Structures are given as structure tokens and as C-alpha cells.
Amino acid sequence: MSEQIVSTQKNSEQTQQAFPWVIMILMSSVTFVGLLSELLPSGVLPSIMADLSISEIQAGNLVGYYAVASAIFAIPLIALTMQYNRKYLLLALLSGFAVSNILSGLVDDYSIIVSLRVIGGICAGIMWPMIAAYGMRLVGKEHHGKAIAVIMAGSTLGISIGMPVMTAIGNDFGWRFEFVALGCFIALIALLSVFVLPSAPGEKLTKNTSPFAVLKIPAVLIVMLLTLLGVVAHYVVYVYITSLVENVHLSGGIESALLFFGIGSLISVLLAVKLTDNHLRSLTIGMFVLLVLSMLILRFFSSIPGAGHFAFFIWGLSFGPLVTLFQAAVSRQVKQAKDIATSVQSSVFNLSIMIASSIGGVLLASYSPMSLAYLAIALSIPGILISLFAKKTLGRDE
Of 60, 30, 31, nearest to 239 (Cα)? Predict the structure, then answer.
């Protein structure tokens, strides 16, 4: 009888420790549509310009305003919403995404669409940091990195699979249908979330859990610096990837480059799911090293058949776990208010994208696209060195 009780207790503990794949995959679908909501206009800019009679800059700003709203509002709104139940907050954010996209596809006034995009950006500013912290609450400490990797895999899938599919839908059926379809898909995810996601209470905001308190932690500042270096290094090239592809005369053009880049990203996401918890430091170093290697191949060996495609593949390997690595790193530095810590990191991430876009534009106007690759290498080298010596921050491999 006692043996049966012990056996039952062991089975119960194993059940409690089991990784909740269904919940995490549903959360991953949230980051998937969150990424699509941000980038959706970029694939159908000509159609939007023609339909609304606006300039290319105005059409491009539909992405820019969204990103700016995410960066500006992330920290203050995460602080304001910390005390709210995580499930109900996420449901509210999904509703905001759905309404923003559906109405954007139905109205004709550019100013109203901009306002709706800002609303979507505000929802994203809250969603990106809070969903990672929400996911970590649902698993044991030993699975925190795995949870973040699975959840954030949705953003990589959004870039590599979601965007090409949605762009094709937009080109075949019109940009308005594309926006409404995404909004309806988000509403479906919200409905599933009502029944699948567990409830999780919020936290009280105190002096010890405020953004300013988080920024006083030296290890957090190290992660912020690594985020700045890593994101600018990647995005200064990625934002202008078309120009780089043309510069190296890649066979198959941008479609071929994105295909190999996407394959590499998908593989790296799977590796991140398995390795982030125990090998965060090695993965971070590897991310920077692979970026340097890919840029060097494009610079010196792109004329060799297949070399350019291989370069985009290993760049994808480097790019895929970018969000996962830095969110996992910053979450390790705090015991409480992980939402606040990840919101600070998320704001730095978005700010770094804007910095990369601006610097890249200046370099591209004055020099060749290869100058972007040089800058990516220059930023990656200090990233490698910091990661090598940040054993306490990133942890030793187990």
C-alpha cells in the first residue's frame, strides 16, 4: 500500500513537472500574429498606396508608427498593468489586435488607419514582455528558457512563414482582405485562449520592482548592452536585405535569400528550445560568431556558387533565437517583476531596430550596401567579448 502511495506521488510530481506544450504552442501563436500585425503592411505597400492615394513614406509609416508606439508605451503600460490577471490582460490585448486589424481593412481614412496601427502597437508593447513572464510562471525554473524559446518561436515563424503567406493572400485577394483575415484569425486564438490558458494573478508594483530598480542591476545593464549590439548588428543589414542581395548578385534574388535565411531561422529556433536553459551563454556567443561569419562570406566569397546561399542560411541560424536569448537572459537577473525586466528589454530591442534603420539608411546613402555588413561585424566583436566574460550574467554551461 505504501509503495502505491509513493508511486502515485512520483507520478503526480512528474505530471506537475511536465512541460505544458499545448499552452506554450498557443502562446507561440500569439507572438506569431503579433509579429504579423506589425509587419503586415510591408508586404503590400504598393496596394495600400494605390488604394489610399498616399506616398511610399506614408505607407511605410504604417509599420513605423506601430513600432514607435510599442517602444514608447511598453515600460509605462507594463508597470500600470502588472496587478491585472495575466490571462485576462492577454485576452484584452488579443481583442485590441483583432479590432485594430479588422477595422484597418474596412476604413478608407488614412488618419484613422494610423490611429488603429498605434493601438495595435500599444497592445504589442504590452504583449511582448508580459507573455514571456506569463509563460515562465506556468513552468518550473528549470524550464524557463524552454518556455521563452517556444513562445518566441512564433515571431520567427511569423517572419519565415507567416509573412510570405500573408503577402501572397494580400496580392491575390487585396490588402483589405489580408488585414480582416488576420484580425479574424486573432479572434479565433483569443477564443481558444479563453478555454486553454490558465489564470495567473498579477503582481504589485513596488520600489523594488519598478523599471528604475531593474535598471540599477548591473547584470540587467549588461543584457541591455548585448541587446543593443545584437539587434543593431542584425537589423542594420536585415532592414536593407534587398540592397545587400543585389550587391552580391545572389542567384535567385531576394526570394532565394529569404528561403535559406528562413530555413536557418527555423533550425535555430528548434535548437534554442532544447538548449537555452543550460547553454544560454554559448548560444549568445554563437549567435554573434555566426553573424560575423555570414557577413565575411558575403564580403569575400559570394562569387563562389552556393557560398552566398550558405551565408544567408547561417545568418538565419544566428537571427532565429535573437528575441529568445535576450529575454531569457534578462529574466534570469530578477526574481520578481519579470514583466518589468522583459518590458525594459523589449523597449531596448525596439529602440535598437529604429537605430539600426536610421544608421543603415545613412550608410546606404553614402556608401555601398556592404558597409552594412562591416558595421554588423564591428558591433558583433564586442558582443562576443562581453558574452565570453559575462559568466555570472549568462551562466556557465551545464
Answer: 60
